[in-house]
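Hey, I'm writing a tutorial for new members on how sequence and structure tokens pair up, and I'd like a real worked example in the thread rather than a made-up one. If someone can provide the structure for the chain below, I'll link this post from the tutorial.
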Amino acid sequence: MAISITEDIRSITDLKRNTNAVLDQIHKTKRPVILTVNGKAEAVIVDAKEYEKITNAFNLLKLLAPAEEDIKEGRYTATRDFFKEFKRAKEI
């Protein structure tokens, strides 16, 4: 989802004048549109389905972060050892 500088950066005035065209562009390209006010980025508009995908991916990453920290800190058990302990505890 690389942003096109010539197509995806638009002024708020352009959005006001061409709302349907901007929305059509977002739906067609699946790329966000960056809105500017006085030449500075002010907001980003994203297709709703793409936003859901981004949000789901972000939530998954948040779940993985503690696991990565555990690995960095050495707080893990080798799979083989885990299953041996699990079987012993469950008397399998």
